[in-house]
Write a structure and sequence with these properties.
By secondary structure, the chain is an alpha+beta fold. It has helices spanning about 5-20, 25-30, 35-45, 50-55, 65-80, 190-215, 220-230, 235-245, 305, 365-370, 400-415, 420-435, 445-470, and strands spanning about 120-125, 135, 275, 280, 295-300, 310-315, 320, 330-335, 360, 385-395, 475-480, 485, 505, 515. α3 crosses α4 (about 50-55), α6 (about 190-215) packs antiparallel against α8 and α11 (about 400-415) packs antiparallel against α12 (about 420-435). Residues about 95-110, about 150-165, about 175-185 and about 520-525 have low confidence and may be disordered.
Length: about 525
């Protein structure tokens, strides 16, 4: 770089530094341009939390993101100048109050005699000419006088400060009556709820804006737009996740490496954590023998999205033996030996295993087994816990993201917006599948979370199967995270629809879709 260019660069940086806006103005400029903190952070090369700190005044912009951030602010200020403020009204001169009558005792009273150093000079003691109390201090005319004391004449109470009586004025103009519907005063929980609703609405705009951008780029080709949206689903959902974590206290990247049990031995070997994937078929209903019993294949809506509501470890995983690390507010992975399952008409909550014995399971599976072994269900014995890797946990870490994506999904279904619906589905499914050891998502490496969320989805499906069984329906099959086949009138058990809390009839190319006759290959029209 030439000397001239170098000097000009320094001058430009000095100009930017001299004109840096206040934290509140930084936020105003970003919001005026409809930019998220995640977008600004990506543009200037810092974290989203850093931008939040710059806008709240918790810290000042620092290199290396300082210079590009200041350039961005300068450009935004040129596009969105600060609104002009109305000039302050000219100050009016206050009316000069009338002279306050001075009590006779204070009129022409001499001051205390003081020396060159400013101290009062003492003389022969005598009664103070003001209050009558003896004092050695003297007045300028030689009489006893307290030093600087606002004393009262003897036998009287201290005089209250007097104020001039207001001069008579014209009759006041009648005040404008207050609005009959004043602004409501919200308490703290209500203010939080309203703030959260506004934050969710602002973040939801990121989803609709992305869909609109890709639809315009594709020139109306919905298939091409969907491919582009699926391609950007991972960085987009991570940006949404960071937005929902704006006020979060836990940084999921701040903890040491996970234990070896959570690492794959090799690319070809399976994970060491058993997720309890079901592959259940009722032994009384052979799919190979003809029959006349009707069954319905049901589909659970957004199973993985619902599973984001689960207990995730949020600290360093610590090793424990036996039941030492077991606590309702802890989560992780556990080496257990499950009890024998003796209910062939119900799916095994541990899934379908080829080998018996001890195995590593997630906290979601362990919680299900503990519930089923408790007094409420009494379906099995408690598992034997050998060792655990756990930490303090929370059930709400991903809840804000879950609610955001659920709201966007519901709106897309209501508007029959297939493009947005598939985009949202790609975001939450890829968010879960790449949070482990994936080259497609370098921002998050939490295989423990991935296994727990998968297991939670299977546990949720088992709960639906048990609910159907309690209502008198037979569970013919249960597979994956979202497929449940039952006999009988399932609509009296589950609400029908496409909502997250609803079930719908499964349709596809499989041999058991929709309503079918158990034991036949084809399907029967409803």
């Amino acid at each position: 770089m030439s000397q001239e260019n170098s000097v000009e660069a320094l001058l430009e940086e000095a100009r930017l530094n001299a004109a840096i806006p206040s934290p509140a103005e930084r936020q105003r400029l970003r919001e005026a341009a409809s930019l998220s903190r995640a977008q600004v952070a990506a543009a200037v090369g810092v974290g989203r939390t850093t931008v939040a700190n710059w806008e709240t005044g918790h810290s000042d912009p620092t290199p290396p993101g300082r210079l590009p951030y200041l350039k961005l602010l300068k450009g935004l200020a040129e596009i969105y100048p600060a609104p002009a403020t109305e000039p302050a009204p000219e100050p009016t001169a206050d009316p000069v109050p009338e002279a306050v009558p001075v009590p006779p005792a204070f009129a022409a009273a001499p001051e205390t005699l003081r020396g060159p150093d400013g101290r009062a000079i003492e003389g022969d003691p005598g009664p103070c000419i003001r209050c009558g109390v003896e004092t050695a201090y003297q007045s300028t005319d030689g009489r006893p006088l307290h030093s600087g004391a606002m004393c009262q004449p003897a036998g009287t109470a201290p005089a209250a400060p007097t104020t001039p009586e207001p001069a008579p004025t014209a009759a006041p103009t009648p005040a404008v009556p207050a609005s009959p519907t004043p602004a409501p005063a919200y308490n703290r929980p209500e203010r939080r709820a309203r703030s959260a609703a506004r934050a969710q609405a602002d973040t939801t705009l990121l989803i609709s804006r992305a869909v609109q951008e890709e639809a315009e780029h594709a020139g109306g080709d919905e298939e091409a737009a969907l491919k582009a949206l699926i391609k950007r689903a991972i960085p987009d959902v991570m940006a949404l996740f960071n937005e929902t974590r704006a006020s979060g206290r836990y940084d999921f990247t701040a903890y040491p490496a996970l234990p070896d049990i959570l690492k794959k031995p090799s690319k070809r070997d399976p994970d060491q954590i058993w997720e309890a994937r079901p592959r259940f078929h009722h032994p009384g209903y052979s799919l190979r023998a003809p029959g006349d019993i009707k069954a319905t294949a049901l589909d659970v809506n957004a199973a993985y999205l619902s599973a984001l509501k689960c207990w995730l470890p949020i600290g360093k995983l610590e090793h424990h033996t036996g039941t030492e690390g077991i606590d309702p507010k802890r989560s992780g992975v556990h080496l257990i030996t499950p009890a024998e399952w003796t209910h062939p008409h119900l799916p095994d909550p541990i899934g379908d295993r080829d080998e018996p014995g001890a195995l590593w399971v997630t906290n979601a599976t362990l919680r299900l087994l503990q519930r089923l072994s408790g007094p409420k269900y009494g379906l099995t014995d408690a598992p034997v816990i050998h060792e655990s890797w756990t930490s303090g946990a929370t059930e709400n870490f991903l809840d804000a993201l879950r609610k955001l994506l659920s709201a966007a999904r519901d709106e897309a279904i209501e508007n029959r917006d297939t493009l947005t619906l598939e985009y949202v589905k790609a975001m939450y499914s890829k968010f879960i599948s790449t949070m482990g050891e994936s080259i497609h998502n370098r921002e998050m490496v939490r295989p423990d979370w991935m296994h727990i969320i998968h297991s939670q989805a299977y546990a949720n499906l088992w709960g639906k199967a048990f609910k159907a069984h309690q209502a008198g329906l037979d569970v013919v099959a249960m597979m994956g995270t979202d497929e449940l086949h039952v006999t009988g009138d399932w609509r009296r058990v589950f609400p029908e629809g496409r909502g997250v809390a609803q079930m719908k009839v499964k349709h596809g190319e499989g041999k058991a879709t929709g309503e079918y006759t158990v034991g036949t290959v084809g399907t029967v029209a409803r």
